[in-house]
Specification:
14 helices; 2 domains; alpha/beta; Aspartate Aminotransferase, domain 1; Aspartate Aminotransferase, domain 2; four-stranded antiparallel β-sheet; binds pyridoxal-5'-phosphate; globular
Length: 344
């Protein structure tokens, strides 16, 4: 794929802006590994503040940040409650069990939304007096496999309350939390209020070349830092380069999320006008569009040959994600290409 405006597979392909390149080029570097890089420290503090948390930890990827959060909240052998379509489980290849040694209890969900009663039941269910120790409930917003659903404080808060009342922590995979916040008109700190730890990606709608920040209490982050080392991770000895781009991303790219959400809506509405394809418009709440059609994997291959990047989601779902390189004109072109390839 060379034309980024037609690469709708993901928003992680977004390239750094000119200002980010400039910031990376001129970043004053310190030894980040021992906490001596000013840009890293500033970025960690800024994201923590945005999310209403005490401290932050810059990590190379959102997946690694989630992993370290899980390790830090829970002891090996504990049960962790997640929704059945959780990115942490499926797209992070069961690292929850493989690396962290946790037992994932998957709870039915619609658009990533678990029923509070089902979460309560998952934590409290015992058999013949045997009750697993549930130390963590994981949430995700926006919800990737849910089709980009925007789950804000109205959903997250009560679940966090249920967990807390039963002695469990809550972790939010907020890789695209800023898309949710743009959709709901909610401040990130309000959305994440009551949640113990949050991961925010810098490499999606924010357009930085990489990185995610895990935020939580000071003591949680201090422990997470050690766990990151235990799994051989860090943001890099000279992570200041990444942090310099991340700071620009945070200060300049937040408004982009509303634009990305608007274009996803436009794309969804235009696609829904075609024959033989369908989009559940109620699910199009942020920058992800999932199109229902026949033989999605074969169609994705064909679309790739014609220059449009899409991602199959199962046999009948095709994911298209808007991002800063997508224009209104490229949305129209994407619709034309999809219509021609699908005979719609
Ligand atoms: C919901 C969600 N969580 C976490 C991640 C992981 O982020 P990264 O690709 O930086 O590991 C992604 C990436 O696609 C995601 O969509």
């Amino acid at each position: 794929m060379t034309d980024l405006s037609l690469d709708l597979r993901t928003d992680t392909i977004t390239r750094p802006t000119a200002e980010m390149w400039e910031a990376m080029q001129s970043a004053e570097l310190g030894w980040a590994h021992v906490g001596e890089d000013e840009n890293v420290l500033e970025l960690e503090a800024e994201v923590a503040s945005l999310l209403g948390k005490e401290a932050g930890l810059l990590v190379q990827t959102g997946s690694a940040a989630n992993l370290v959060a899980l390790m830090t909240h829970a002891e090996r052998g504990d049960q962790v409650v997640l929704d059945e379509a959780s990115h942490i489980v499926w797209s992070e290849e069961w690292g929850v069990a493989y690396v962290c040694g946790l037992f994932p209890r998957l709870v039915e969900s619609v658009g990533g939304r678990m029923e509070p009663e089902a979460v309560r039941e998952a934590i409290e269910r015992s058999l013949l007096g045997h009750l697993p120790s549930t130390s963590l409930v994981c949430l995700e917003s926006s919800h990737n496999f849910g089709g980009g659903t925007a789950l804000g404080s109205e959903y997250l808060g009560p679940i966090a309350e249920i967990a807390r009342a039963r002695g469990a922590w809550t972790h939010l995979d907020g890789a695209r939390l800023l898309n949710t916040c743009a959709a709901l008109g909610e401040e990130p700190r309000a959305a994440a209020a009551g949640i113990d730890s949050v991961v925010l990606n810098l490499n999606k709608g924010l357009s930085a070349p990489g990185g995610a920040v895990l935020a939580g209490t000071r003591s949680f982050i201090a422990e997470a830092r050690l766990n990151l080392r235990r799994v051989g991770g860090s943001a890099g000895h000279q992570a200041g380069i990444l942090a310099a781009a991340g700071l620009v991303a945070l200060r300049t790219m937040v408004p982009q999320h509303a634009e990305d959400n608007r274009r996803a809506r436009l794309l969804a509405e235009r696609l829904n006008e075609l024959d033989r394809v369908a989009v559940d418009l109620d699910r199009v709440q942020t920058n992800i569009v999932v199109v229902q059609l026949d033989d999605a994997p074969a169609l994705a291959l064909e679309l790739g040959r014609r220059g449009l990047g899409t991602l199959p989601m199962g046999p009948n779902g095709l994911r298209l994600v808007t991002h800063r390189h997508v224009t209104d004109a490229s949305v129209e072109r994407a619709v034309e290409l999809l219509a021609a390839a699908a005979g719609a």
